[in-house]
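Teaching assistant's notes for section 4

Start the section by putting this record on the projector. Ask students to predict, before seeing the second block, whether Methyltransferase domain-containing protein will look compact or extended. Collect guesses on the board.
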Amino acid sequence: MTQTPVNIQNAQGHQVLAAAGKKILRTGGKEQLFEWANFQPNETVLELAASFGESGIALSQRYGVRVVGVEKNPESVARARVNIRNAGLENQVEIIEGDIFHLEAIPGEFDLANG
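Reveal the predicted structure now:
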C-alpha cells in the first residue's frame, strides 16, 4: 500500500500528524488512563475511532489484550489493517469499518472501551 501525499491545507488533523511520523495520536493523559484501566491479558477492548490502528496495536503489545477497533474512514481502515499485519497481530487486533454512533452493529462483548 503506497501512501498518497497529504495536502495540509485540507487534510484532517490526524492525517497530517501521521504523515509527520506521529504514531500515537492521542497523547497526554492517555498513559494515566491506561494505568487506571488496569488492562489484563486476554481482556477484549473496544477501541473507538481507531484511526490507523496504532493505539490498538500498542495496547495489545503492552497488555496482551485483544482489541476490536471501529473506524469510519475506509482509507484509515485499510491502513490500520496493514499496520496490524506488519505488527504480526492479526489474531489480537481487528479493525471494523463502522460508525461509533451505531455500535449495535458491532458484534461481540467487551471488557473495556477506549476512545
